[in-house]
Design a protein that fits this description.
By secondary structure, this protein is mainly alpha-helical. It has a single domain (3-232), classed as Phosphate transport system protein phou homolog 2, domain 2 (Methane Monooxygenase Hydroxylase, Chain G, domain 1, Up-down Bundle). The chain has seven helices and no strands. The protein is elongated, with a radius of gyration of 20 Å.
Length: 233
């Protein structure tokens, strides 16, 4: 057994879990912001989010370098190599999820129609909860080598996509204001940006789940029909 190689791989996955927890913390803060229904985000919350985002950027760079160095210098066996490559892909997706959290927080104060946002905040929050749950389960799938969590995440991506389209229609149907009102139109645009960003979080969770299955089985299912694959087994 190559102790140096084992320590390098162990170190990567320790740091990976720390990074995953940081992104989950950012999502938890976002949940609180959305659930409040307020267009005003307290300064201390914004400060915490921005500090964590800076940490996230540094984490992503450091972890990516560690993974590349370990692959090049330690020459891991096939199973470890797959897991390291999957970890690399997941780290990139986690960083993008962190960016989306900041994007959503920036969109909220731009909404000028508080009544419209108040009517929509509950359904937006519910959509966010599904996406966050997808992120959590996809990460657990990778960390615990649990394929069922990965499959659950991939299947629920369609649920979030469907919620996105329904929310837009619902926002327009519920509005009592004229479509010619400029502020209302801008509010709808920004609400759509928030919803689309949440949908992208779910997409990244799906990427994490697919990488998890690759790490476990060496099978790339990114362009495969999951239902057919499941039925064949």
């Amino acid at each position: 057994m190559n102790i140096k190689k084992e320590n390098a791989i162990h170190n990567i996955f320790d740091h990976f879990e720390d990074y995953a927890n940081l992104i989950l913390s950012q999502l938890s803060i976002l949940e609180k912001v959305i659930s409040s229904g307020s267009l005003v985000i307290p300064e201390e919350i914004l400060k915490e989010l921005n500090i964590n985002e800076d940490k996230s950027d540094k984490f992503e760079v450091k972890l990516s370098e560690k993974i590349v160095d370990t692959i090049v210098l330690q020459k891991p066996v096939a199973s470890d190599l797959r897991k390291l490559m999957a970890c690399y892909q997941i780290v990139i997706n986690l960083e993008r999820i962190g960016d989306l959290v900041i994007d959503i927080v920036k969109f909220i104060p731009r909404i000028k129609e508080s009544e419209t946002y108040n009517r929509m905040s509950e359904v937006i929050y519910n959509m966010l909860l599904v996406s966050v749950n997808m992120v959590q389960k996809s990460l657990l799938s990778f960390i615990n080598s649990d394929k069922e969590f990965a499959i659950w995440t991939i299947r629920n991506d369609e649920v979030v996509d469907d919620m996105n389209h329904k929310l837009i229609r619902k926002a327009i149907a519920k509005s009592k204001m004229s479509d010619e009102t400029q502020q209302l139109m801008f509010s709808f645009i920004h609400i759509n940006s928030i919803i689309s960003s949440i949908e992208r979080i779910a997409d990244h969770a799906t990427n994490v789940a697919e990488a998890s299955i690759y790490a476990m089985e060496g099978t790339d299912i990114r362009h495969h029909n999951l239902e057919n694959e499941t039925n064949e087994k």
